[in-house]
Specification:
Aspartate Aminotransferase, domain 1, 38% helix, 7-stranded mixed beta sheet, Aspartate Aminotransferase, domain 2, alpha/beta, 399 residues, 4-stranded antiparallel beta sheet
Amino acid sequence: MTTPDISPSFPSRLPNVGTTVFTVMSALAAEHQAINLGQGFPDFPCDRKLIASVNDAMLADQNQYPPMIGIAALRNGISQKIKSLYGHHYDPEAEITITAGGTQGILTAILACVSPGDEVVIIEPAYDSYRPSIELAGGKTIAVSLQVKRNADGHVTSYEIPWDALASAINSKTRLLIINSPHNPTGMVWQTADLERLAQLVKNTSTLIVSDEVYEHMVYDGAVHHSVASHPELAARSFLISSFGKTYHVTGWKVGYVAAPPALTKEFRKVHQFNVFTVNTPVQYGLASYLADASHYLNLPAFYQAKRDFFRSGLEKTPFKLLPTPGTYFQCADYSALNIPQAKLNEAEFCKWLTTQVGVAAIPVSAFYDRPTESGVIRFCFAKQEQTLAAALQRLQSL
């Protein structure tokens, strides 16, 4: 008698998670040869000097395990950069850890401090890794939504921080609050007054903060990024997350860092050493060498503002209604004013139609909510060559 094969089965840790919208839209763009303004990555090369620095490290045999917390030269460089920009000193030995990108830093921070039953407050629309990371830690996600502002015609004009809802969400069960500025997907940027108001909200609570600041060098029109590192009371309870991938146009390298006070870093590293242990050695040496010259990240706002302004000027020749873009490399647009039947589609279906029929891929902002929240707004990425943006604009201007 033959025993039937039994397929192993087990309950999913993330039963409600499927393939991310970024992967879906990028695959759809490739299938239909559309111009991909959906997923947030540049289509232009990084500085060849950075490549050379990594190559030099490889040839110098810097190819074995580095220290678990990251090489000293890179941690020192990060400490100096944060001090020069935001006025706060992080001890490179006790307060800075090199991570496998910003997303791993976020997951590790959550796993380090969130226990089953703890509440974690996020602000939606939110980067799609936050909620699954909380669920893996056994935490409970408490989502509050940005306030959507509309004009007299009903078109979305801006997003604002929901202070009253945020205040109501924070209680004795709140272990962690995740904030993101400059904000993906809306491009909103927190101001000094916002940080002060946040500090008052969490004062006399045990709430910790994860501050996702991966777009810190993409703030425009002469404004500056306001980091939690610039506010001593917030810095004392925060994990600051940033990424070299966004700053140096090398998203595929997946190297970032987390800066936090010693007590938080101690717990962070306990988890870090067992989920990645450490991060690519020659890339760390190459980044350390390149980071010594601050000119790249200091010039980055002007570099991306030129792309933003070029793209916005082209979109203004279409029926799309543009939202402000004070930060990030994303442009949000309200499509509900388009005089075509497809303007009545929900955001996901509109983006599929735009990709397959117009030949330009975008991301629905509704995808950044746990439960789709329709506002008629989609997100374009303008971190592209001018010729790519021009080609996309030509297609969009046909609408």
